[in-house]
Amino acid sequence: MSRPDEAMxxxxxxxxxxxxxxxxxxxxxxxxxxxxAFDGVRVLWISRRVSLDGIGGLSYADGTVRGLxxxxxxxxVPFEIDAVSGAASGGFVDFRxxx
Length: 99
What we know:
Blueprint: E1 17-21, E2 26-30, E3 35-38, E4 43-46, E5 55-61, E6 64-71, E7 74-82, E8 88-90
Antiparallel strand pairs: 1-2, 2-3, 3-4, 5-6, 6-7, 7-8
């Protein structure tokens, strides 16, 4: 996108949560299963799936995006995402435990 004043469709549906890094000029937007980083012009990264079905408690501090996700048989599983790389730890891991 070459004009930041134009509307842009982002891959976040439905939008569940958002948090800003004012100094870094970024927003972190969460849908039901993933988080994206957006700098007002482009998507910087899209996280892996961090939640089975719902993300809450999104926060940002010291270069890390934190939130609470749902997982198989549990709720409020914490996750962390590096704000620069988008690498995630914690949260929902995969569907192999469902079998």
